[in-house]
Amino acid sequence: MLNVTDLIIGFFISFVSTLFLVYPIKKLAIKLKVMDIPDYRKIHITPTPRLGGLAIFLGTCLGLVYLAPSHEHFLEISIGALIIVITGILDDKYQIRPIIKLSGQLLAAGILVYGGLIIDKVNLPLIGLVELQNFSIIITILWVVGIANAINLIDGLDGLASGVSTIALTSILIIAITDFSLIVIFFCVVLIGSNLGFLFHNFHPAKIYMGDTGSMFLGYSIAVISMLGLFKNVTLFSFLIPIIVLAVPIFDTLFSMLRRFINKQKIMMPDKKHIHYQLLAAGFSHRNTVIILYGFSAVFGALAILFSNASIGLTLLIAIVILILLHLLAEMVGVVGKGGRPILKYSKKIYKMVRGIK
User: Fold this and answer.
1) What SS3 state is found at 159?
2) How far is CA 306 from the centre of its chain?
3) Quick check: pTM over 0.70?
4) C-alpha distances in angstroms, 215 versus 39, 40, 286, 337?
5) Burial class (CB in 10 A: 0-12, 13-18, 19+), 61
6) Binding residues for Mg(2+)
7) 183-201 residue pLDDT tens
8) Using an 8 Å Cβ cutoff, are 342 and 331 in contact?
9) Cα end-to-end span (Å), the chain
10) 164-200 burial by CB neighbour count: b if 16+ within 10 A, else e?
11) Which residues are annotated as a binding site?
């Protein structure tokens, strides 16, 4: 049974725990020299402690201990999360090879599959419910690993990954409340609490970074939550809902890979052409760039909520809006147009005009 008081208490346990756990974890990161050192790809200019994601993880755990959710796959989810966090800690400390990091992600996804938590069916328009059968394992692993890496890749500015994740989780929470999905509600509430507690330290100028420990844990958690809730939704186009919720990190990743392919660059080669770098290059401040991407995420989240229970007519209208927004994102990261600069420079001019009027 859903007890609102318990949810509020669980939220505050996660929020307060994460808020205060950051202090000892920051000292630990400095002592162990788990620091983010500035280089040509980094925005910050001073070494900054990492491992902040450990506070998010521990705060989430404490909130869940209080709420004590019950689910048949809770053990597999917990083991997978622990594997992800350990992999993240090792990467934050030792900068492990990508193949080792990927192995940790695959192991976590494999634990879920072995335990039976898979994306086993999707609801397609004009066709109806389609059983994925043997493809379910591949799709599940790709989803978990893909979202873990998408959140990881967008973690390039102070407060960006934490804020975008919070917006996505809030959207999922609203959908879960309408569907009365208790396990999803519990997970969303504690993760939102932990994220907000961490964001107090991480918003620009950040005093600590979540590192791969946090970004991969958040990506893994959102992927799992969407499997428990959004993919189980039986409404038309339900398979698109989690993609819309996470449109900013997903399509920033896909567009970056496409851009590198078009430019005959290595697909996995890191660069400074992600959407947040393009906004900075166009002249937006660090803080305003993050707020703009929060806005994009919030719009996509709201569209996903509408999409989850929309009629055919409204679905088509929402689809058109989504396509327009995706085109803007594609311009920003340089897949279409001239590196996204025309639209960004135009946006900057409008921004300056509005500020001048004020």
Assistant:
1) coil
2) 20
3) yes
4) 20, 21, 19, 30
5) middle
6) 152, 212
7) 999 999 999 999 999 999 9
8) yes
9) 50
10) bbbbbbbbbbbbbeebebbbbbbbbbbbbbbbbbbbe
11) 152, 212
